Automatic annotation (TrEMBL):
Alphabetical list of InterPro entries matching this protein: Homeodomain-like_sf (IPR009057), HTH_AraC (IPR018060)
Alphabetical list of Gene3D superfamilies matching this protein: Homeodomain-like
Keywords noted in UniProt: DNA-binding, Transcription, Transcription regulation
Organism the protein comes from: Sphingobacterium alkalisoli
Pfam families given in the database record: HTH_18
The protein's name: Helix-turn-helix domain-containing protein
Length: 322
């Protein structure tokens, strides 16, 4: 009888393990005593809590096969904030959310179904609808703006922060009474949605900067290779890198030097090396080699960078050699 791979045996053993009877107790929404607890399958545990314009939904289990999960629906759109602690979920659009990610989406009055992979699963969804949804988006205009720019009603997934984890852990320390429950839920919704919006905007800004960072380093590399080319210019660099001059200038924004200043500095450092290593060359000759109009112009720029004129620098070198 052929021996089974040890890893496969381990997977079979894990998948065959019965779900703990304490699964409900380990879920975040278990602190809400009026929440409805149910099992969709023997492996998938669900908790749902509805209050006014809020719906909270949590799912957890170790799935042995691909499973469909239907989120609660209302007679109006629901704005959701999803926390994927374990496993991954796939939307009907094909978008996949991975483990340890936080994401937001809007569901319509139609059934919103997610496909769950056959693996360890744990997710929590915070939904808000009606007037409260409009009020929340008014308080978070950046989040509203992101939805106005989207066509598929699913925003970018970002990593779950430690702050979010601590927020859910703090739920177990709260007292949910007839009056305080709606207050705590409202605070939970506002805090988590605010944190998500702030992280989302930071991530979007980083993503926008990334192409500029890459373009900047590509431009620097090209300038270093071609700074002794007399025809080197912003136009030539942009053409070589297949970008516009505006994009090239934007890539250098906030950097120590502009495009032209970078070319100038490299030529000046080249001039300094020539002054020190090739004493047979005059200052005038070096100025021409580096494409300066004349020795005076070269000397002015040189002093700005090195706080000495070319002749003073050369004399210093000669003195040291003696």
């Amino acid at each position: 009888m052929p021996q089974k791979n040890i890893f496969n045996l381990w997977k079979e053993t894990i998948s065959a393990k019965p779900i703990s009877k304490d699964t409900f107790k380990s879920m975040h929404l278990a602190v809400l005593h009026q929440a409805v607890q149910q099992k969709q399958t023997e492996q998938l545990f669900l908790i749902q809590f509805d209050i006014q314009d809020f719906v909270l939904y949590e799912s957890k289990g170790y799935l042995q096969s691909i499973t469909n999960l239907s989120l609660p629906t209302k007679d109006m759109e629901i704005l959701w904030l999803g926390f994927q602690f374990h496993g991954k979920s796939t939307f009907s659009s094909g978008k996949v959310t991975g483990s340890d990610t936080l994401f937001s989406f809007i569901s319509t009055t139609d059934n919103q179904c997610l496909t769950l992979a056959a693996e360890k699963h744990w997710a929590l969804f915070l939904g808000i609808f009606g007037a409260s949804k409009q009020q929340l988006l008014t308080e978070l205009p950046l989040l509203r703006a992101q939805y106005e720019q989207q066509q598929n009603n699913i925003l970018k997934a970002i990593p779950i922060s430690n702050s979010d984890r601590q927020t859910f852990e703090s739920l177990s320390k709260m007292v949910f009474g007839p009056f305080s429950t709606i207050h705590h839920i409202g605070q939970l919704i506002l805090k988590t949605y605010t944190n998500y919006t702030q992280q989302l905007i930071r991530r979007i800004k980083q993503d926008k900067k990334e192409p500029q960072i890459q373009l900047y380093h590509q431009a620097i590399a090209f300038i270093r290779e071609n700074y002794m080319d007399q025809t080197l210019s912003r136009e030539k660099i942009a053409d070589a890198l297949h970008c516009s001059i505006r994009s090239l200038n934007r890539a250098f924004e906030g950097r120590p030097s502009s495009v032209n200043a970078t070319i100038l500095s490299l030529r000046l450092y080249k001039g300094r090396a020539l002054l020190r290593d090739q004493l047979e060359l005059s200052v005038e000759q070096i100025a021409l080699i580096l494409y300066f109009p004349d020795a005076k112009h070269f000397a002015v720029q040189y002093k700005k960078y090195f706080h000495k004129t070319p002749r003073e620098d050369r004399k210093t070198i000669a003195t040291r050699k003696e």
